[in-house]
Amino acid sequence: MEKIVSHTGIGVPLRQSNVDTDQIIPAVYLKRITRTGFEDALFAGWRRDENFILNQEPFNTGSVLVAGPDFGTGSSREHAVWALKDYGFKAVISARFADIFRGNSGKQGLVAAEVAQSDIELIWKELENNPGTTVTVDLESRTVQCGSISAPFQIDDYTRWRLMEGLDDIGLTLQHEEDITAYEAKRPAHKPQTLPARTAG
Amino acid sequence: MSAMQSPQTLAEKVWNAHVVRRGEGEGEARQPDLIYIDLHLLHEVTSPQAFEGLRLAGRPLRRPDLTIATEDHNTPTLDIDKPIADLTSRTQIHTLRDNCKEFGVRLHSLGDKEQGIVHVVGPQLGLTQPGMTVVCGDSHTSTHGAFGALALGIGTSEVEHVMATQSLSLKPFKTMAINVEGTLKPGVTSKDIILAVIAKIGTGGGQGYVLEYRGSAIRSLSMDARMTICNMSIEAGARAGMIAPDETTFEYVKGRPHAPAGEDWDAAVEDWKQLHTDEGARFDAEVFLNADELEPFVTWGTNPGQGVSLSENVPSPEDFEDENDRKACERALNYMGLTGGTPLKDIRVDTVFLGSCTNSRMEDLRAAAQVIKGKEKDPDVRMIVVPGSARVRLEAEAEGLDQIFKDFGAEWRFAGCSMCLGMNPDQLAEGERCASTSNRNFEGRQGKGGRTHLVSPLVAAATAIRGTLSSPSDLVNAPASV
Ligand code: SF4
Q: Per the database record, which ranges form the Aconitase A/isopropylmalate dehydratase small subunit swivel domain (chain A) (predicted)?
């Protein structure tokens, strides 16, 4: 996973609350079996509308999405994060994220920065009045910067640390493999196993 | 202070019994705990990239004996003996088969008696048991919480993490008690309870919480009905939903293929009896609902929180004080092709879908069959019945339910997710309106431009008869529409 300490890129205002993962990436795109190449799937339904923000210059080259509250609700599909990343987004800003989406983002190196809605309103105005304005998301200082607006954002310490160090989850856990083995040794005997397979006949 | 001695909630008990390693640090800076996973369920959609990651890193699958896979999300529900027409669906299915073979994972493929929706299969095999931690790359994993398990939907990178380590790094959740006291009126089901809960606390109301459903109304429910409730916890934004196990639970598990037997059974029940929230344990939040007052519930909008009693009218944007809610209502009405003030019972549907991991078990099929038996379907309505698993299908056929559905004019299909998410050919056409027993009414969920009303199996059945959103009591009180 790539380290990310601070990112600056064109901000994309998405004035929409409750953007669920079915909108971020419709189910038909989940059939792929690769980990990359989902850029065309991002907001596929909305992108059919030529007025949609990502169909307009310079927003189509944006890398910081500024969305309404409750971003990433619904299905747990991690493809939502892949699609955002494959398109080129490095950070999403919202007043509130769905838990699973936030978790998935941290693991994939996408910054999910929680910013107060009042600040988001200001950033939206700035981005709409001056298309192409960049937004800086700085993990070090936990602030977002857009034009003259500077706002703090929330991100939990652990996720922030991992993003800044670019640390992979599994490797971290396997440092404690002995603990896992020790735990397994004392699991109750009545816990079920899937193998050998038993069925009702 | 020892955590074991202070009163604990059910969720805390299960959590504490699975801590491999406590996270370092205190307060905000505390790292996540490493939690052991007892059962990992896989399906074709969210597993390929995880297997790919494992292979790329040269890591083995740690516990094939705690892992099981089934094909469900994009399997066809017709002509299951023919090659899957859609190329990408076929590729996903074949990739799952190859991966399971390579990593030694038990797989129930299309055509197998134990194939079906992953959340129907686990409980049915007796693999879902009280006090376990269960995960799956699917948000409706919360279903398994009905057994007093801590069951979490996870993303694909977490799937890979569990494959490699049989554990997950998790931050402790907050707990919320959902107290439902009283007795449900006839015709009111657990689906109506959960739709009412979501309408009450909102689609974000459960965020960060594990919900525990409690109270006399919950205790009186069957396991099938409890699963319906826990299933939709995620629609309130919750991480999981749980119900403390009791005799009903033990009765359900007993004798299933993977249930403990002999001495193991006694030891297991002994453990399971401890799985309840202690007297004096504190929840971070509490919600109360009176079961006596509940009526059949139905959604009118495009998120599961946009629901009201079936006897009410479609709300208007003006009914909402909050600016965001008003806009959301406007947008939803526009998408749904509805006008505020319309009685819900006047809304005509084109399709009725009985299925999905929310409502596709025996009890659901029986309930619907009982309503339609000997009745005529509205000729303009198509009804699709998709059992949750091949096993449910067989059982239903043994009881003659399939014949009741067929005589009624409904389509009797093979098991799978089907129209719940429209990844297979079972989709709504643009503008088509559907009364669906599934769990999500998002825009385009059941097909591009499709319009979904979430309902119980009883309402689905009555709606198929009258052609408009209806409950079984409407069949008695009013002449059927001709
Ligand atoms: S039936 Fe629907 S909600 Fe359930 S697992 Fe399948 S797609 Fe998901």
A: 1-116
